[in-house]
Each structure stands twice: as C-alpha cells, then as structure tokens.
C-alpha cells in the first residue's frame, strides 16, 4: 500500500480511454487506491480496462459490481455517453453518500442527475490539458475547472490538490465558452500547425522536415506569451505594418485556398486584438 492510501477515498474509474488512463495512473501515483476500472461493454473497451487495471492494481469489469467500497466514482467517458452511463449504473449499487464526478469541459455536473437522485453528490472536474493515445501527461500544475454539489466539489478539490494540480471554480453557464477557449489552445492549434505544414510543402519543405524546423519558433513563441502576454509576443509583418509582405503572402497562399482562409482569418483577428501599424491599409489588403 502506498503512503496515504488508508486515509484517501477509494476510486472507481469508468472508462479507460486517453484521459481515464492518465487519471488512474496519476491517482495511483498520488496514493489513491483504484478499486476498479469499468468498461461499458465487452471487446476493445474491456481489453483497455483490463490493461489499465493491471497497471494500477485494480479489478476490471463490464459495469459496476454488486458491491462497491469506493467512495468516488469518476466517469471518464465521451461527453455524449456521460448521462447514459449514469442512467445505466444508477440502479447497480447504493449511491447514497457516494461522490460521482465527470470530466467533460463543455457539460455541467447535471449530466449525472440520475445519480444525484439516488443520493450521490455530483460534480464536474475538467483538466485544461490534452490527452492523446501516445502520451500520458502529468497532471501536476494543471488547472481543473470544478462545479457541482458542495460535497462533491470539496472531494474533487482535495483530489486535484493531491495530484499537484489546482482547482478553479466555474459556473455551469460558462462551461461551453470555457471549453471553446481550450479548443483554441490545443486541437485548433494543432489544426493550425497542420495547415502550416501545407504551406511548408508549397515552399518545397517536406512535412517531417517542416515539423523539425518549426519547433524552435513555436517554443519561443509560447515562452514569449508566458512571459510577456499576447501583445509582447506578437511579431511579424502585421505589427510592423508591412502591407506589401502581407499581400505577397496572400498571393502565394492562393495556391492553397484553405491555408489562405486561415491566414486571412487570423490576420483579421490580429488587427482586432493585437498591436499593428497601418491598420486601414492592412484591412484593405485582406479584403482584396
């Protein structure tokens, strides 16, 4: 038994996808006992659950067993399956006194209403982090947006603190906007660099080489943003008011229309939100 396990609530993980895997491993490392990893069906879902269960010293099963000692049941399933999973499991065990959490960024704790009606305290606790199959990021330093019933919020905040993350309160009505903000930081950012790769190919640079060459400027841009904010990190032809260069960019990007659309949209955003010279001329160039 890891230090502190005796005083920390046992946890059941529902779903062994990218986030569920990272969460379970982090919880185990923080001294939490993972009682079970639950799959909603047999086949690939159950195989993933069994693989994760072996890593964290837990049992794996399809659906909740009849007796669950765990205090916390954490739903790590896609957004569209949270309410359905909650309804499916509502009659399987006694929920009075349990804590039920989910980690959707866009949906509120009310997705677990079926369990609240059975006596559970429910909350959502969403980490502002990206989870993909090939990596397992640490949750240390990661902000979790938390809302829900008071008892569940307290439990979630304690767990997040033990993971070395930190909790931020969020209102239910703000969750969609909050999640859209996160989309700009990772999935849409990835779409941006993927679009940039098409422009690199236009410039005669192969995709693999383009990724190698672009990393230093990406890392420095993020470092500048972290230190100086958006205004201080902004460079290039728009901040200088270099209209001719912007026109050259637009002309050559006509050969890759989707990239031209992205460039023009981001340039218009830059003129709205960031320092720039010769705004009127740049606006006209983008319309041309």
UniProtKB/TrEMBL annotation:
InterPro entries (UniProt xref): 6-PGluconate_DH-like_C_sf, DUF2520, NAD(P)-bd_dom_sf, OxRdtase/DH_put_Rossmann_dom, TM1727-like_C_sf
Pfam family, one: DUF2520
Domain DUF2520: 142-269
TM stretches of this protein: none
Domain named Putative oxidoreductase/dehydrogenase Rossmann-like: residues: 10-127
Family matches, as PANTHER family: CONSERVED HYPOTHETICAL ALANINE AND LEUCINE RICH PROTEIN (PTHR40459:SF1)
Protein name: DUF2520 domain-containing protein
